[in-house]
Give the backbone structure.
Amino acid sequence: MERQRVDGMTTESKQETLHTMVVGVNHETSSVDLRDRLLFDDEEACHFETLLLEHDALAEAVVMSTCNRSEIYVIASDPLAGRDAIEAAWASVSDVSADEIAKHAYCFVHGDAVRHLYRVAASLDSLVVGESQIFGQLKSAFQRAQTNGSVSFYFNYLFQSAIRAGKRVRSETAVNEGAVSISFAAMELARKVLGKLDDRTIGIVGSGAMGALTAENMRNKAGAKAFLFFNRSMTRAKALAERFDGDVCLLEDIQTRLHECDVIVGATGAPGLVLTREDVELAMKKRQHRSLFLIDIAAPRDFAPDVGEVYNVFLFTIDDLTHVMDENMSRRQAAAEEAQVIIDEEVHIVEAWYRGLEVRPLIGQIRGRYDDILTDALAHHRNGLPDDAHAKVEEVCRVVLNRFLHSPLTELKLLGEEGGGKDVAYIARRLFDLPEIPPAGDSECEGGDE
């Protein structure tokens, strides 16, 4: 991969050029099999962070690992050496070679790494734009790294600001609104037609992953409490019934229990119809024609297509749900453009803060120098003052000193954030008669793949 040149960033903590850096694989760059082989659980992530910090080129580390991505965030003194160190260490704890990792991994440095982190926090870099899980996973990874002692001054600020940006995106845009999965769309349609589901009985036909996800959404998002699970295997149905505190029934008995349900979700994926028009007509008589909501998300279909012709029966198929999902995804994509504006604002804030780090030691030096001058002056004149006047005189002197320093120190901070910190520091040292400190090294280095 071609490497591109990037500018370095200087922090106050070390007199060297340091770089924010991320190396990772995700759903766009690698297969499911490769991602599984590069996955970390929490214990492995802690161990790997500690392993990385043993390398001279690396400082601070956060490992985030999910089913769709594994990413290593570090501070590196040399991005080229840092990337090599990460890939070598990753290979040493997995069954993937460093060359294979390098072939599929992306690497971002400096501002590009910061922007990538913010996009991950806002779920703009996710397989499904706006999905909610990644925000919590990033937050958990950061908190775990804090507990592990692998983050310090800079990453504490950077990850907290990324979390803030993610919250802003969710509260100020519609990027996470609207169903974009079959199971979620099924829940939304049921709630739209029937309103609250807390007093409705939900029938789930099939005990596979889709049926379980639909039941989970019905319970967690729509408040459903009563479930009836139909399946050919009682063992699998009982497992779901225990999970959702529901009842269980053999699939062959659905005709005799159908009338108990207000919503029926077909999710078997098996050939052959589960419900015919005659089955539904019989159930509606027992229900005294109270409305029945049928959602067929099975392929091939579970419900006969003419069941929707029965009075007060509402039938929705996977095509109906797909249409809803497509509309919602279009709205999310539009919201993602608004979210990018928020991310750009937050990245600008953190970059200004980072540039300002160059003058922070100088601000502390100025304040310390004048505090010493004040302390010496107070000590020199203390003997000529009554004892009960000492505290008041010191209070007045410190108020005057703070007012004197407020404007120049505020402007010094702002000038540092705007850039040119070395020039600003040189002039300030001349104005305040401060000793010279050897400047941090200026360097350019190779960055990551875009």
